[in-house]
Amino acid sequence: MKSNKLSSSNVTSILNEIMKYELAGVVRYTHYSLMVVGPHRLPIVQFLKDQANESLLHAQQAGELLTGLEGHPSQKIGEIVETNNHSIQDILQESLAHEMHALGLYKELLQEVEGSSIYLEEYARTLIGQEEQHQLELKKMLKDFS
């Protein structure tokens, strides 16, 4: 366990990265939801729309923490690479990669705040749990393609 001193600059930097990445997720998942075609379109579109809404909520939560720690939320979003691969399998695989990167950001935050702030630890742990759950769902959705 780390020392009990919270480094606000490190935490706000990580929260800004989370916020930018989650905002990119809003755009990514919205785009994906528009590109899905085929007989399984409706449940997958709904799943992707739900992911977009959740990404927005996560960005807002990170922003609230940022300003609470006297940080300044960026108006930028993370980079979004357009692969032009729009099969359901490609969309789900890209979504899984996106969730894995988000998981890494939340784990980085947990590592930074561990032993310094119960509130921030619990926030990070909750989001880690949610990102892990999304990965499990995406892996299940990808099973038919393997």
Explain briefly what this protein structure is.
The chain is mostly helical and 146 residues long.
Q: If you had to describe this structure to a student in words, what would you say it looks like?
A:
With 146 residues, this protein is mainly alpha-helical. The chain has one domain: Up-down Bundle (Ferritin). The chain is built from four helices and no strands. Helix 3 (88-113) runs antiparallel to helix 4. 32% of the residues are buried.
Number of domains as seen in the coordinates: 1
CATH class: Mainly Alpha
Total helix count?
A: 4
Distance between the termini: 40 Å
Order of helices and strands: HHHH
Binned, the helix content reads: over 70%
Number of strands: 0
Largest sheet: none
Question: Can you tell me the CATH architecture?
Answer: Up-down Bundle
The overall average pLDDT, rounded, is: 94
Task: Extract low-pLDDT stretches.
Answer: none
Structural category is: mainly alpha
Report strand %: under 5%
> What is the molecular shape?
elongated
Rounded Rg: 16 Å
Helices and strands in order, then pairings?
Elements: H1 8-35, H2 41-68, H3 88-113, H4 118-142
Helix pairs in contact: 1-2, 1-3, 3-4
Task: Using brief descriptors, characterize the structure shown.
146 residues; Ferritin; mainly alpha
